[in-house]
Amino acid sequence: MVQKAKILLVDDRPENLLALEAILSALDQTLVRASSGEEALKALLTDDFAVILLDVQMPGMDGFETAAHIKRRERTRDIPIIFLTAINHGPHHTFRGYAAGAVDYISKPFDPWVLRAKVSVFVELYMKNCQLREQASLLRLQLEGGRTSADEARESAGLLAELSARLAAVEEQAEALSKQLDETADAAAVATAAHLERKLTGLRRALDALEPGSGSVAG
């Protein structure tokens, strides 16, 4: 059974958190609330998250500060952050969001369908990453253990092929998404596509390293 992904919702207003939960409940993932930047950072110490929805305007530590802390931590720096804001101070304010490490910046009121669709992309990518990491780890253990029987060799080759096929499917989805986003010529689209590309490139390199003859696996 595949474990559900966790989505972190950060907003100081309970009604906003309730609205986000209503919008994202259809994704059937685990939604975790945080009512402040400090509370969000505490949650990130112990749990892994697929994506963070972060309100910009909060008392105390605001969204920009919170994002800066998240990006400074080794454990959390690669988690996608989607900023949500009820204020709009123009391009400079939006640029500050991207500079803080956001992959998207959405103004309230937002289209619930659009928000859910964007979050689902990162959830899907996270789930694929988890599956690929688990299977790659299993394969690496087999190879490093020197299990060389014909049946095991065939099993390893089959697993590699399955991993490659799964990654190819995600790459195809990401390519289609990038083309769709490129049509909007939007800064958020560029940031989202770039993040996806970096993630997939890293996964493809890791998988290629497992191929026989790559020399990356200890004998």
TrEMBL record:
The modification 4-aspartylphosphate is found at D55. Signal peptide: none annotated. Keywords: Coiled coil, Phosphoprotein. InterPro entries: Bact_response_regulator, CheY-like_superfamily, Sig_transdc_resp-reg_receiver. It comes from the Bacteria. Residues 6-123 form the Response regulatory domain. The keyword Metal-binding does not apply. It holds the Pfam family Response_reg. Residues 160-187 form a coiled coil. One of its GO terms (biological process) is phosphorelay signal transduction system. This is Response regulator.
